[in-house]
């Protein structure tokens, strides 16, 4: 039987959690007419391939709207805002500094559910419940048996303290690798996911990668599912697209 193609999953943030902070807050871009355009990094169309169509994309007109960020600075469009935040193309130093500050914030946050959820630990159970329903739906679409009895491997991106791995992924995947740039979060995950002494555990957390998402390349053919939640909002547009392209290539080259 042919192996399941790798799936890159972005867990849609439930309505009750949309107010969760993603700190240090990526730039919030609001249209000049005042309505909130987006509370996480704005995805401009500049870094995306142009559609082969004579019809002018409606989104492009929206992206060209002027606006201001959460600090009150005005910009002609989202591209100008990103230029201010991470520099122009080729400005490696400014981009690295932007990401460094993001990791620096989380390095000052306690390695607890309340810490990684920005004080909203009470949404954990509802989040896991919604994520489980989403995952079961996907596995049911891919396998007649819902994936039961198969040796599947997942990558938990932005794993933090292993909250999603421990409460969800470890129950569905034979192996789970964790990817997290904040070292004390990853160590907390490692300690939390150690099997109890004397117990034979079929499913396990295998690898712990202390690497930023924008710098990570998934191993070809290793993962059946790549799971991404709120951490995706920390990436600049081009890094967002680049990671998905790397994941797609690893899927296409799978044996």
Automatic annotation (TrEMBL):
Keywords, in A-Z order: Methyltransferase, S-adenosyl-L-methionine, Transferase
GO biological process: methylation
Protein name per UniProt: Alpha N-terminal protein methyltransferase 1
Biased composition (Low complexity): 40-54
Annotated stretches, region: Disordered: 40-60
MF (Gene Ontology): N-terminal protein N-methyltransferase activity
Family assignment from sequence similarity: Belongs to the methyltransferase superfamily. NTM1 family.
Pfam family, one: Methyltransf_PK
Taxonomic source organism: Eucalyptus globulus (Tasmanian blue gum)
SUPFAM superfamilies linked to this entry: S-adenosyl-L-methionine-dependent methyltransferases
Catalytic activity from the UniProt record: N-terminal L-prolyl-L-prolyl-L-lysyl-[protein] + 2 S-adenosyl-L-methionine = N-terminal N,N-dimethyl-L-prolyl-L-prolyl-L-lysyl-[protein] + 2 S-adenosyl-L-homocysteine + 2 H(+); N-terminal L-alanyl-L-prolyl-L-lysyl-[protein] + 3 S-adenosyl-L-methionine = N-terminal N,N,N-trimethyl-L-alanyl-L-prolyl-L-lysyl-[protein] + 3 S-adenosyl-L-homocysteine + 3 H(+); N-terminal L-seryl-L-prolyl-L-lysyl-[protein] + 3 S-adenosyl-L-methionine = N-terminal N,N,N-trimethyl-L-seryl-L-prolyl-L-lysyl-[protein] + 3 S-adenosyl-L-homocysteine + 3 H(+)
The EC number(s) this enzyme carries: 2.1.1.244
Highest taxon, organism lineage: Eukaryota
């Amino acid at each position: 039987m042919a192996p399941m193609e790798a799936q890159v999953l972005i867990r849609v943030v439930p309505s009750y959690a949309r107010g969760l902070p993603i700190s240090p807050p990526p730039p919030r871009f609001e249209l000049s007419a005042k309505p909130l355009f987006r509370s996480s990094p704005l995805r401009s169309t500049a870094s995306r391939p142009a559609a082969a169509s004579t019809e002018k994309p409606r989104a492009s007109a929206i992206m060209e709207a002027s606006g201001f960020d959460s600090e009150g600075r005005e910009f002609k469009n989202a591209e100008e805002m990103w230029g201010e935040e991470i520099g122009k193309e080729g400005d490696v130093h400014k981009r690295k500094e932007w990401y460094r500050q993001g990791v620096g914030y989380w390095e000052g946050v306690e390695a607890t559910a309340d810490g990684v959820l920005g004080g909203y630990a009470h949404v954990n159970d509802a989040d896991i419940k919604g994520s489980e329903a989403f995952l079961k739906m996907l596995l049911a679409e891919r396998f007649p048996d819902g994936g039961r009895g198969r040796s599947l491997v997942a990558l938990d991106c932005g794993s933090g303290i292993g909250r999603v791995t421990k409460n969800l992924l470890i129950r569905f995947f034979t192996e789970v690798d964790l990817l997290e740039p904040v070292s004390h979060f990853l160590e907390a995950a490692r300690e939390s996911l150690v099997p109890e002494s004397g117990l034979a555990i079929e499913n396990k957390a295998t690898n712990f990668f202390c690497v930023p998402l924008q710098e990570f390349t998934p191993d070809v053919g290793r993962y059946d599912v790549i799971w991404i939640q709120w951490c995706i909002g920390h990436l600049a547009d081009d890094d967002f697209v680049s990671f998905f392209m790397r994941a797609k290539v690893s899927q296409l080259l799978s044996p």
